[in-house]
């Protein structure tokens, strides 16, 4: 009986095996490599041979003058993106929902969704061109209104806002479509009932449309909480420069520089451990909240 | 149902159409501008005369890019990684999603396996340890360094397994009564029924591979092995003069940096721009796919 049951499941185990092996090597292997955060790591000696230094790397990072600023930058940029990235799609979806011409609706959806599919290399190249203080088109347009050229990507005053706005540009179309999908599932009878009760358009939006979106909004809000330390490496890395490290340097770019550029492996991994652990808590919490309040299950 | 438009309603609708049109235009204006720059003469681009239409139309920047060996090499590398990466991604996604879509009653290990995969979303070793793992497994500076670490796209697995779960259980039971095993059921019943989901996931994986640049940048030692996006990173974002030959430098003075960059940006985005109109329907369906659960 036992043997029969087991052999019936054998194919299922075999199917999982190749993916499991790869995940163990390339996702769990690096977790083992986190040990070097506690070592004075020398590549020639390997993980087992390098000297164990306990928490020295962590202490070293905390004593670096820029570390507080970098953590602050990361959280601030990530939070601004989370908030802007939630509001923009909701408004767009509500406005698109009022549109009755299907062709127009689809056209706008197509266009706003497009930047989502382009890499930050492409978008970064475009932004560097149009935001250039010398011959960028944005500064030319500002010039028509008598505004002096602004070096958007090199000015600490502007850099964070540029990050947030351009991130919204890339991603808001995606969530707009998620919200629109939720809106189409609202039963038309609810609107008819509201009209019978004398509700105007505005009242319908307030009492039918928005409540119909609540569950998906709650879901996306809770899931986005997992991103508090995710300021968007791809974007920051391709737009920043030493002039804006003060406001734009984030944990991920910092790890890259001290780890791969300066080759301080132990220190970089220590920062990485910090980030991974905080992310583990924030992502787990966000999934838990999504499960608790939006009945969301990953699988 | 007839709708009677009041004055305020009409004002709102007009405003709404105007606003949404502007929003749509703002979203693609930057792309159109860069396209116009790429077709303009270098003098006009440098002086800032180009707005949304090419000024002094010329193909010289495209001519310059097309004669750059490094550009072609990087496209070949990208094709190679896409060619190897997509089949790997898809095969593993299907093979993992099928067993995980079984109920825990029928496949007790399911929950354990599922957690093994989900943990990788929650926690990762980070940059430096990953680099070392790749070095230890001797795939540094080969195309496999861009294929194997991301070989199991966990989010796609979740999408597909949720789709599998939505299929009628009777089909599977009928197949088993007819003597089919798990492999046959997966191949003959599940896959043919999941074509829309499979198409969506293939597209996600393809866009992902096409757009990836960071892995190429750090896992490839020589610029000769860079995929297109990594190569573009070095020339468009972070202009690295050491990667240019002296012939490149000479022709650059003729072509002008700005128009040449614009041409390369546009060529890098072109495949996605071309397939996008056809794909976006799939994507829109795909987003909704994973969200329907029992």
UniProtKB/TrEMBL annotation, chain A:
Domain called ABC transmembrane type-1: residue spans: 71-286
Membrane topology type: Multi-pass membrane protein
Pfam family, one: BPD_transp_1
TM region(s), chain numbering: 12-38, 70-96, 108-128, 177-196, 208-229, 265-290
Subcellular location: Cell membrane
Any one Gene Ontology cellular component term annotated for this protein: plasma membrane
Any one biological process term the GO annotation gives: transmembrane transport
Similarity comment: family membership: Belongs to the binding-protein-dependent transport system permease family.
Taxonomic source organism: Paenibacillus taihuensis
Protein name as catalogued: Carbohydrate ABC transporter membrane protein 1 (CUT1 family)
Keyword Transferase on entry: no
Lineage of the organism: Bacteria, Bacillati, Bacillota, Bacilli, Bacillales
Taxonomy, superkingdom: Bacteria
Keywords assigned: Cell membrane, Membrane, Transmembrane, Transmembrane helix, Transport
From TrEMBL, chain B:
InterPro entries according to UniProt: MetI-like (IPR000515), MetI-like_sf (IPR035906)
Chain coiled-coil ranges: none
The entry's keywords: Cell membrane, Membrane, Transmembrane, Transmembrane helix, Transport
Heme in keyword set: no
GO terms classed as biological process: transmembrane transport
Family annotation (PROSITE patterns): ABC_TM1
Pfam families: BPD_transp_1 (PF00528)
Membrane topology of the entry: Multi-pass membrane protein
CDD domains xref list: TM_PBP2 (cd06261)
Boundaries of every ABC transmembrane type-1 domain copy: 75-276
Compartments reported by the entry: Cell membrane
Cellular component, GO, one term: plasma membrane
Keyword field contains Membrane: yes
Main location, first listed in the record: membrane
TM regions (residue ranges): 12-32, 82-100, 112-131, 143-164, 185-207, 262-279
Recorded family membership: Belongs to the binding-protein-dependent transport system permease family.
PANTHER family in the cross-refs: ABC TRANSPORTER PERMEASE PROTEIN MG189-RELATED-RELATED, POLYGALACTURONAN_RHAMNOGALACTURONAN TRANSPORT SYSTEM PERMEASE PROTEIN YTCP
Protein's UniProt name: Carbohydrate ABC transporter membrane protein 2 (CUT1 family)
Species in which this protein is naturally found: Paenibacillus taihuensis
